[in-house]
Design goal:
about 220 residues, mainly beta, five-stranded antiparallel β-sheet, 19 strands, about 45% strand, globular
Length: about 220
Amino acid sequence: MNKWWAIAAMSTVLAITAMAQTNVYSKNAVGVIRVDIPANAWRLVSSPLVPMGGTNRVSDVLGTNDIPNGATVLFWNGLQYVAETFYAGFGWYPNTNTLARGYGFWLRAPSAFSLYLTGEVPSVTNTTVNLAPGYQLVAFPYPVDVPISNSVLNVVASNGDTILAFTGSNYVASTYYSGFGWYPGDFMLRMGQGYWYRAGSATEWNEPKNTHYTYP
C-alpha cells in the first residue's frame, strides 16, 4: 500500500530548502510530499507543488536524487503515451516533457524508492484543468486531500463523467449523475495522486485555492 505524506512549512519569514546540494530560496511556503514507489509496479502520481527550478520539466518536478536507474514516466497526450526515462549519471531523457499541476502521470522503477516532490505551495487564486471528451490523466491541483463532492468537479461535471483511482491492483471509481452529484461522494482527491477522468464533453475544471486554504 502506498503511503502519501505531506509537510507544509508555513512561515511568514523566508523559507529555505536545499535541492541538489544547492540552496534555493522562496518567500512562499515550501512543501514536501513523499510518495512511496514499490519495485516494478506502475503508480499514478502527480505533483500539486510549484517547482523551485522555475519550469515544469520532468527534472524540475521529480528531481534526480535517489531516482533508480531505469525509472520511467509515462504521459498520456490524449492519443498515446509519451515516455521519459532516468539514466544514472545523466538524468531524465529527453527531459522535454512537462508535469503541470492538475495533471497525472504514470511512474515505475526497477527498485522500490521514496519519491520526494518539493516546491512552493501554490498561491494562485485559481487553477484551471482542461477536460476534453474522453479519457485523460488529471489530479487535484493543490496540496490537500478533498472529497470530490467538495471540489468544483461537483459543479462542472457532465452526466456520466467518471473518475478512476488506481490502487496498485485494480481501479475504484466514482460517477457523476445530473441532479444528484458524484457517487460515491466521498471519493477522495489526494495530494500526489493521479487519476483517469472520462469526460462526456469539453469543459474547464477551474478550482479556487481559497476554498481549501488561504496561505500564502
